[in-house]
Amino acid sequence: MREVVIIEGVRSPVARRKGKFANERPDELAATVLEELMSRAGIEKSKVEDIILGCVSQAGEQGGNIARTAGLIAGFPDYVPGVTIDRQCGSSQQAVHFGAQAILAGDMDIVIAGGVESMTRVPMFSNVQGVQPSKKLTEQYEIINQGLSAERIAEKWGFTRQQLDAFSVQSHDRAQHAIKEGYYKREIVPIQTQGPDGETILVSEDEGPRPGTTLEVLGGLKTVFAENGVITAGNASQMSDGASAVLLMSAEKASELGLKPKARIIARSVIGSDPTLMLTGPIAATKKVLEKANLKIEDMNRYEVNEAFAPVPLAWLHDIGGNPEKLNVNGGAIALGHPLGATGTKLLVSLLHELERTGGRYGLLAICEGMGMANATIIEKL
To answer: Which of 29, 286, 326, 350 is the most exposed place for a label (fewest CB within 10 A)?
Structure first.
C-alpha cells in the first residue's frame, strides 16, 4: 500500500492588501517560495514530477498558468510541468489532494503542491469581469455573496455580534502571541521586495494582526453586508497577498533518497454543500474525513478551520463538538489574512509546524469554498 508523506513545507509572510507586497509580482513571490522549499528539502529540482498550484483569480499576472511560470522563474528544468487549479478558497488544499492522489496511483513519486494569491495586484473577481451568473443557475439556487451567506449562518446558529467579535479579538491575540514567541518563524521564508518609496525591504513577519484589537474597537465598526446584520470587516478574513507550498513524496521514494518525512497524509475529503449558505461545507467534510481515517475529533491534537468569517469556525465547533482550545491556536485568517489560493497550504504548513512544536500526533485542516464546497485533510506527524 503506497503512502504519501510530507517532506517539507514553507510559506511567505502574509501581507495586507496594498501592504508590503504591493510591488511584488505573484509569479515571482511563488517562485521564491518554491526555491526555498527545494533548498530546505535538499533535493534537486529535476526530481520533481509536477508543480500543482492553487490560484483563484487567474488573470493578469496570475493568468497563463502561474504554476508553470513560477516554476520556470524558480529555475526548475523546463521538463518539470506545472498546472494551476481553482477550488476557490481551498485551491491549494485541493492541490495537495491531487498531488497525493497522483502519488497513490503510482503515476508520480514527487510532487509540489501549493498556492499563491496577490489580492493587491490581481483584485478578487478580476477573472469574472463583471459577468452575472447564468439564469439557468439562478433559477435553481439563490446565489448571494459570501458575506450574506455568513450573515445567514450567524442567524441560523444564533451567534450574536458580540460572540463573533470576541472570537475575532481572540484570533488577533493568539496571532500576536504566536509572532512574539516566534512560532511562525521556522515556516516563513523572508521575502526581499520593493517598498512603497522604491526602497528595498525584507518582510519576515505576517502583516495582518493589529495590536489594540478589542471588543470595544470591533464593536464600533459598521456592518458590511446587511444594515441590521452582524458581519463587519473586523470579524471577517482580511484580503491578503502570499504564497505557500509543500513537497509531497511516496514513502518509498523518501526512503530511497534518505529523507526523513515530517508527516503523512492519513485521509482526504471534498464535498459540495448548499451554494446559498455556501460556507457550511467544513462540517460535512470533517465528518467524512474522520470516517475515512477511522478517527474521532477527540483524536485530533490541533485543527485549522479557515476563518473566512467568524460564524464559519464557530458553527463548525458547535456541530462537530470540537475543543476551542485546539482550534486555530495561533490565530486565523481574521488576524493573519486569507490570500485565497495560498491559504490551504499556508494553513497546512502552520499545522505541521504546530504539531512539531507541541509534540502532537494528528492534525485536521478544513476550508469552506465559494459556491458551496469544502476540503478536509488529516495528517499524522512522524
So the answer is: 326
